[in-house]
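Next up, sample data:
>
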Amino acid sequence: MTGVCEIFLPDSVYRRLEEHLFPGDGMEHGAVVAVSAVSTSRGIRLLGQRLFCARDGIDYVPGERSHRRLEAAFVAQCLDYCRANGLGYVAIHNHGGSDRVAFSATDLASHERGYPTLLTLNDGAPVGALVFARKAAAGDIWFADGRRLPTRSVRVIGSPLQHLTPEPPTVQFSDPRFHRQLLMFSELGQARLQNCRVAIVGLGGVGSILVELLARLGVGTLLLVDPDRLTVSNLSRVIGATRWDARWPFCASRAPRWLQTIAMRLSAQKTGIAARVARRANPSVEVVQFAANIASRGVSQACRDCDFMFLAADSMQARLTVNALVQQYLIPGLQVGSKIVTGDDGHRLEDAYSVVRWLLPGPGCLWCNGLVSPQRLAWEAKTEREQRDQEYGVAVPNPSVVTLNALGAAHAASRFMHAYLGLANASHVADLRVHPITGEICHDLPRHDLHCPECGVDGRLARGDAFDLPTFIT
């Protein structure tokens, strides 16, 4: 674990905070956010779980040694909640200005007087402070092991994403491969992509195209997740796959059955093919391969510190696990898929479309939109033999075409780029459906269920390691 600390706030929490701190009166206001602490090899993430807004003149009052302070009773109320739920305590106030902010000498002196005691009262969970300007944020976080870390940034997890730092970052990026991209999103944008860690779950027709696109954009680290090996039927749509990856000609229909079986068992892993594609597109990309199900404990744990996730797998286990990662660890993502609808005879084409769906913390998740089927989850939990027995005579392969997959992947990669680099002008979280046959483009708003067991008020939102992920495989 490195000495880097970042704070993540769901967009809904930040909007409330922003309205409270900057109501237009030019005054200083206060609040407290309760946070979950998650430690990874990349540093510490503090996940904003609940916001307490201090009432002016009641909870936030003139101070004797400072301009203003939080009233003791309000601090005690917030601290009781944090201690009862194993959460960190972070006090918040605002200064004037826009893109630069820092604690005053008086602020820092008050931290040194009070935070050692607060650490003890909060049973060792982190305590600290944030100060905001309109487009900047700085933090001072104290830990029970004696460390005192500034926050590198405050990330607002929505669309677009916001990266609030104490002052505008300065970077130099001169790689000629990305010169044309710098003209669109600057050296800072390219540097953010280089430092970005993205997971792609599912490396079939859509996922394999995403690998190519993200590697060429310059994403620094790709986590590739897929348990499957390549089959002959994948060759028409998995980018970078060769006939030898499918072990042709040993898998050909004219080969003996026993040889076809061996060829299938020895064909290339989809993760290996995707890694080869990524490195050819961008030799400097770091690739981490997981030839396993995202619903296995080790793989899902490795994804906790991703900056973004793409869900391009169809299984209910994958949907449920990725949905939980988004909610628990405040990791934004996109679900991408394509659908071809044929008539009852299996030959008449009725519809074809690509879907790109935002996965963001808070109400509107896959579960409360009915996109995780409990019945299908139960079926996936059965053994392969049980699944084959139940599907005998009724299982039909899903149609898939590379051009339709490419349409969805391109829209998804573009949405990621615009949101992560802050290029989008306003929040836009509607699902996208593109029907290439009719030329129709639809935007569907997700349904919100405040009592959803996943993203609702008693759900997983910002719970971090306090909740177990819904893994099915040890």
About this structure: DSSP finds twelve helices and 18 strands in the chain. The mean pLDDT is 90. The radius of gyration is 25 Å. The CA atoms of residues 11 and 405 lie 30 Å apart.
